[in-house]
Write a structure and sequence with these properties.
7-stranded mixed beta sheet, 13 strands, 6-stranded mixed beta sheet, single chain, elongated, alpha/beta
Length: 348
Amino acid sequence: MTFRTKTHRELGMSKTIGLVLSLVLVVAGMASAAGSGEAGDVSSLISVGIVNLPPEESGYRQANVEDMNNVFSEANGYNARQTNTGDNSEQIAAAQGYIRDGVDYLLISAANASGWDNVLESAKTAGVTVFLFDRLIDTDESNFQAALVSDMYAQGTNTVNWLLDQGLSEYNVILIRGQLGSAAEIGRSAAVLAAEEDGNLDIVADGTGGDSWSLEEARKVVEAAITAGKDFNVIYAQNDGMAQGAVQALDAAGISHGADGDVIIIGFDFNRFALRNVQAGYWNYDQQSSPRQAAEISKWIKAREDGKSIPSGIVYIDELGVDTKTVTNEIIANHGINDDPGEGVFTR
């Protein structure tokens, strides 16, 4: 995985009087070892509070939550706790709780980009180092140490550029957004909205999968468009689960899609089932959004603990976009997330 930095930012005691006293001494010795930072002492571990979204949100988030749990483990030198909620106010309360508890580091993937300044100021006052991951927050960069994120605007731009390169006589798009106001939704929507403003495409239906990026809600958006008689030939769904829901609506209505169909299907996140759908021509395009930020942030933390310099500001992850011509088994194996249904298998 490569990254690019936004440059303006980076016991034993002797036996004496019998078995009972021996046991007392053993216990006392164990307590002494714990107090001196030997194995089993959480005070010798780096304390980390993680504020994240729930794994049920999407395949992406499931992989992200698992990645955080695996990397920030006691075996790796951490005493970490992770809070998972899609409610921004609950996230803010969790972050404030971690600060009060005196964590060394606070990691945040915000449900909503706004409303975080007071939390970040409290962290700064308490001497808690803050890293953002996956999603940016609307705040001055001085309020956090570094952010390791996907460039959501670049994701949207790459995807829209690919779409416009397909040379269709017209582009009538159903836009299915994720959680409104999230960094991912804002960035991935921006390029589509700009292309419409430039006269390069028409958004004929604009819906959302809601705060949970729901497959079911996405299916309803497309069902409503079909019922209303909307003329469309592109579905731009801002994650793979919502693309899957959209395709279910098309299949139920007998509308063809994919490489040889009437409707282009676009998804985001690089779930392996989605990449296999692209490979099989069942979908057309999928844009990577890597959930694996934990290992790099752990490197930063360990470096800081050793007194070394670490990045500041925004660090972007370089990511791929693939279509039926460019997706490969190697890409699916090395860059895809979650279970692989296997080559030639598509997921309805």
